[in-house]
Automatic annotation (TrEMBL):
Residues 5-153 form the Resolvase/invertase-type recombinase catalytic domain. SUPFAM superfamilies: Resolvase-like (SSF53041). Signal peptide: none annotated. This is Recombinase family protein. Keywords: DNA recombination, DNA-binding. It comes from Trichocoleus desertorum GB2-A4. It comes from the Bacteria. The keyword DNA-binding applies.
Length: 172
């Protein structure tokens, strides 16, 4: 019997807030060891999950390699680490993997597994919606913070670029 080949997909939103993929990687590697799966590739993105394939190099490469049948199953830590683009896009991505003959599995969401298609589709819908809502809440918190500092008199715009021409403009 052929050994199952597995690819890991890891994502963090930012690199400047002390986030790293080490915890995700360790747990996924241990899971693959227990399953007897051979890890053939690890894809890592340091971008928002709200960004699509074009903006996430690892995500894009993962789909290219899935099309080349480089692995049998894609394992990710959680659906919100996979995508925060909303229900339609997330389901489309997972359907694309299935159409390419690639199974998928979420480490932290055992029901999200291609082994149980009906349950997986229901769970995907709910989790994709929740992931999208978390992204909306993050945006709302950011906007509230910006409004607060703006109300304190801080100007929140980029320099207009005219500083370098200030003297010439004054002469004119």
């Amino acid at each position: 019997m052929k050994q199952t080949t597995c690819a890991l997909y890891l994502r963090i939103s930012t690199v400047d807030k002390g986030q790293d993929t080490d915890n995700q990687l360790l747990q996924l590697q241990e899971f693959c060891d227990r399953q007897g799966w051979q890890i053939v590739e690890t894809y890592i993105d340091r971008e928002s999950g709200r960004k699509g394939k074009r903006e996430r190099d690892g995500f894009n490469r993962m789909f290219e390699d899935a099309a080349k049948r480089k692995f049998d199953v894609l394992l990710f830590w959680s659906l919100e680490r996979f995508s925060r683009e909303g229900i339609r896009k997330t389901i489309a991505y997972l359907q694309q993997l299935s159409n390419l003959g690639c199974r998928f599995k979420s480490y932290t969401e055992p029901l999200l597994d291609t082994e149980n298609e009906l349950v997986a589709h229901i769970v995907v819908g709910v989790l994709a919606y929740l992931a999208q809502q978390e992204a909306v809440r993050i945006s709302e918190r950011t906007q509230a913070g910006l409004q607060r500092v703006q109300s304190q008199g801080k100007i929140l715009s980029r320099p207009d670029g005219f500083e370098q021409w200030k003297d010439q403009l004054a002469e004119l």
